[in-house]
Amino acid sequence: MAIEFIDLKTQYARLRETIHQRIDHVLENGQYIMGPEVGELERRLADYVGTRHCVAVSSGTDALLIAMMALGIGPGDEVVTSPFTFIATGEMIALLGARPVFVDIDPLTYNIDPLRIEAAITTRTRAIMPVSLYGQCADFDAINAIAARHGLPVIEDGAQSFGATFQGRRSCGLSTVGCSSFFPSKPLGCYGDGGACFTDDEQIAGRMRQIRSHGQDRRYHHPVIGINGRIDRLQAAILLAKLDILDEEIRARARVGARYSSLLAGAVRTPHVDSRNTSVYGQYTVEVPQRDKVQAALSQQGIPTAVHYPLPLNIQPAFASLGQPAGSFPVAEEAARRVLSLPMHPYLDEFQQDTICSALIDAVTWQ
Ligand SMILES: Cc1ncc(COP(=O)(O)O)c(C=O)c1O
């Protein structure tokens, strides 16, 4: 059987009946935008994360945009964040006319290094935006303490970490606002684009709700500028079906992750999960020398891999105007040269995992 990087088909086969029932219900009901599934999803997600409010939105990217708009971030402002992330994190800051201020990462967890944050804070800083990369939360104790000293909100980019915990509390419920993505390949994914913002703050939640629907407080009355940031009802219905098995899938991910780490110990650098964290392994990412050769050797044996991410944001041409060329963030840049993500999903069986690990060990030993 072919090894999938992420196997969504097995999950679908398992949930087929429930998903179809839920989809049919929406189709037969005739209301396709918002609707009861969205409200039900928001209640269940808020309950799951442990926040008072959840605002379900059109994508993880829009969740970041909406959270920052609700906090009033705009031209001339600065947001402190990690350069080692998917483009959306820095992109949404820039889209609002603000400046992403990158801070190098911790070499063990790949998350923003809290020891370097304070030096990046200026009078223009309006927020800190840590990314919980590869399924493991950033150090929220340290980050929240710095933010409190400077009176700044903290927005978690939890696109890869939905379901993870830090000190027993769930990702997206650890700071002022938490944002997640329900892109199909995420630990909780729909069949299109989707995302959510989480907060305990009633006013911020109210503003995010307005911004999600063109800034309106009631139909055709628009006190503020917003966007079309709604999640569609079909995606909400699909997420409700998948939520029923999320915890079981997270346990399976943890099993797969732990087994990878024991099979690969000593051969490659395996993920370091901080003792305060549980990881959902949004990605299972190792470090290898001569990555291109290793990736080609695995590909020849039908083993798909991916690189998250080959360029830190400071080196992306889109951010050239920030003037932070190669060499500005040595830890992130070295990680970007070495990281390699292996197939990871709850349905990866032991035989497939053994095949992947022996091919990887061979590929790194032959070099
Ligand atoms: C760290 C990070 N932030 C933001 C996003 C954006 O989420 P979406 O693809 O749902 O817009 C992603 C998704 O890939 C991500 O990995």
Model description:
The protein has 11 helices and 12 strands. By secondary structure, the protein is an alpha/beta fold. The model has no long low-confidence stretch (mean pLDDT 97).
Q: Which regions are unreliable across 5 or more consecutive residues at pLDDT < 50?
A: none
Bound molecules: pyridoxal-5'-phosphate
**Would you count the extended β strands for me?**
12
Helix content: 25-40%
Structural class: alpha/beta
Largest sheet: 4 strands, mixed
Q: What percentage of amino acids are in beta strands?
A: 5-15%
Offer a concise description of the structure.
The protein has helices spanning 8-29, 36-49, 60-70, 87-95, 140-150, 202-212, 233-243, 246-264, 291-300, 330-338, 350-366, and strands spanning 53-57, 78-81, 99-102, 125-129, 155-157, 165-166, 169-170, 177-181, 195-199, 277-278, 284-287, 339-342. It has 367 residues and is an alpha/beta fold.
Annotate the secondary structure layout.
Blueprint: H1 8-29, H2 36-49, E1 53-57, H3 60-70, E2 78-81, H4 87-95, E3 99-102, E4 125-129, H5 140-150, E5 155-157, E6 165-166, E7 169-170, E8 177-181, E9 195-199, H6 202-212, H7 233-243, H8 246-264, E10 277-278, E11 284-287, H9 291-300, H10 330-338, E12 339-342, H11 350-366
Parallel strand pairs: 2-3, 2-4, 5-8
Antiparallel strand pairs: 1-9, 6-7, 6-10, 8-9, 11-12
Helix pairs in contact: 1-7, 2-7, 3-4, 3-6, 8-11, 9-11
Pyridoxal-5'-phosphate is lined by residues 59-61, 85-86, 88-89, 131, 157, 159-160, 181, 183, 193, 195.
